[in-house]
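Hi support team,

I submitted a single chain yesterday and got back a structure, but I'm not sure I'm reading the token output correctly. Could someone confirm the output below corresponds to the sequence I sent? I've pasted both exactly as they appear in my results page.

Thanks,
R.
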Amino acid sequence: MGEKFEVELAYEKSTKRTHRFKETSEPIKIGTLYVQKTAFTAHPKRIHVTVEVVPAS
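Hi R., thanks for writing in. Yes, this is the structure output for that exact sequence:
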């Protein structure tokens, strides 16, 4: 299994087709993340994201 980290992001604003989230933890690993509005059934105030490096096959 590769390197892995988790971050929590808070809702910042919406654009025409996306919700923009800003990382709340330090040190910043992702910063700003845009997610398509169609990915959610409801408007989230916070999201939790896991990033895992996948080894080359």
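A quick pointer for reading it: The longest strand covers residues 4-14. Let us know if anything else looks off.

Best,
Support desk
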